């Protein structure tokens, strides 16, 4: 789990990232990235999965734990001032940690190359 200062916490923060950030698609998730450099210091990240993706809370929580762990282990690779929100798709329910981690690393490379 990320430190509280490094998590997106409110609906306002998630909405800001979604409205103003750059959207990137992956096979298993949507990734919104907002560069707040110059405005707010800390890098932040969060995961949202809706009941429309999966009705079972057990399955949703498993997916959220996997994505949170991927974020936690790759958090040091994210530049300061970047906010990231991840929205898992239904396809993520059938993926394991390694597959999601590979997809997230590809997204990180694309974000920082462009």
UniProtKB/TrEMBL annotation:
EC number of the protein: 3.1.26.5
UniProt keyword tRNA processing, yes or no: yes
InterPro entries the UniProt entry points to: Ribosomal_Su5_D2-typ_SF, Ribsml_uS5_D2-typ_fold_subgr, RNase_P
Domain of life: Bacteria
SUPFAM superfamilies associated with the record: Ribosomal protein S5 domain 2-like
Catalysis performed (reactions): Endonucleolytic cleavage of RNA, removing 5'-extranucleotides from tRNA precursor
Gene3D superfamilies linked: 3.30.230.10
Keywords (A to Z) from UniProt: Endonuclease, Hydrolase, Nuclease, RNA-binding, tRNA processing
GO (cellular component) term, any one: ribonuclease P complex
Any GO BP annotation: tRNA 5'-leader removal
Subunit composition and interactions: Consists of a catalytic RNA component (M1 or rnpB) and a protein subunit.
Function noted in UniProt: RNaseP catalyzes the removal of the 5'-leader sequence from pre-tRNA to produce the mature 5'-terminus. It can also cleave other RNA substrates such as 4.5S RNA. The protein component plays an auxiliary but essential role in vivo by binding to the 5'-leader sequence and broadening the substrate specificity of the ribozyme.
Family membership: Belongs to the RnpA family.
Protein's name according to its UniProt entry: Ribonuclease P protein component
Gene: rnpA
